[in-house]
Amino acid sequence: MIEKADLTGLDIPFALSFYHCVFLNGIHFDESTLREPVHLSGHICGKLTFNQVTAMSCIGLSDLDVDVFFVTNATVGVVDLMNTRVGECCVCETTIDGSVGFYEVEFLDVVFLEELTVGNSISFEASRIHASLFRISQVIVEKDIKFHQCHIDSDIHARDIGKSNCQRLSITNCQCQGSVDFRKTDFETLNVSGSRFVGRLYLDQEQLVEVRTWPSTFDSQIKLESVKREQSVKEADAKCAERAKTIEQLGILRETFRATPTHFREADYCMYQLIDHSFRQSSDGKVAKAMHWLWKFCFGYFVTPWRIVGTSLVIMCAFAFVYANATLCGGGDLTLGKDEYISDLGFVERQLQATYFSVVTFTTLGYGDVHPTGLLKAFAMLEAVLGPILIAMFTVALARYVLRRDQVG
């Protein structure tokens, strides 16, 4: 039991270890130079501070119960907390050459990780976060920010990481009761495998939409490339396993975003990608791949109604072209009345009449003032079948889109 421990302003060339100690009035390493590792365990009443410290090796806490843990204006090799209970935790304005690790740590009050430069990763492993405020801001992380097998009751705010260069954000096998907000952060990949978000997950629209163009935005489970035929069976099986993990992650993101009305676009995007990867998983053979292409590019899986509109316009224009030029190959003609045919009209008027007939046939209006002859009857019947189907598809997709927007309003 130590009444007072003040190691301020010292140059300590050897390792320091305090095991199973009770510090009644805290312990301070302010303005010191620590050339070897420092390890603490036991109970600290009050503050444990490393202010303006140069620690060339590791600051390690294990089996420790500390009220306040401060690291500010410091240069540190590695910071590790293991099996520790922390009341207030603040690591600010500090350069950490290695990593920051919180393993089986219970956070009770507030957590601030601000203005940090971390040479490796920030990891939370099997930790319980009950803090009333958890904030990560203005952090530059060379590798990862990881939450693994954590139980998160509090809200995590990371909206001010404008300078972050994080390669990967991983929230895996976690139970998240509070909201997790990583908007305005700059990470390249995202992994949420096995996590359950009872609260809300906030991401920027760009962090999902730009997945289509970024070389890697979600991690390897999300980033998929086409499997070449010459790949071995083993590689193909591995790709199928990756796609299965992709589907799992997209399902997690979709359900999370659906709980937040303002994130309906992100939910729709995840839904689109989820269906797309599901089709890829089950599409074997040329016919299946052709159907996949049709559902994706022509109908947008009923998630994007405007793609159905585009498909409808293309079909109407294609049939109008056939109607206007069928006489050139003896395929029939369109009659405008007794002994009047559009083939007798000028080029522009012929195209307008063919387009008019195509739109009327597609929408099943059927005014009867223009009707086909010869082979064009078969084309007219086909267009009359396709029209109502695409109109019904558009109605379903548009109704879903409007309902999601109404939830926001």
Question: How does this model look, in words?
Answer:
Mean pLDDT is 81; it is low at 209-233. The protein has helices spanning 205-209, 233-258, 264-282, 286-298, 305-325, 347-362, 376-408; strands at 5-6, 11-12, 16-23, 27-28, 33-34, 38-51, 54-72, 75-82, 85-96, 100-103, 106-107, 110-118, 122-125, 128-129, 133-141, 144-148, 151-152, 156-160, 166-172, 175-176, 180-181, 187-191, 196-197, 201-202, 334-337, 340-341, 371-372. The protein is 33% helix and 34% strand. The two termini are 61 Å apart. The protein has 409 residues and is α/β, with parallel strands linked by helices. The chain is built from seven helices and 27 strands. The protein has a 24-stranded parallel beta sheet that branches. β25 and β26 form a beta hairpin. It folds into two domains: 5-220, Pectate Lyase C-like, CATH 2.160.20; 305-408, Helix Hairpins (Orthogonal Bundle), CATH 1.10.287.70. α2 runs antiparallel to α3 (264-282) and α5 packs across α6. The chain is rod-shaped, with a radius of gyration of 32 Å.
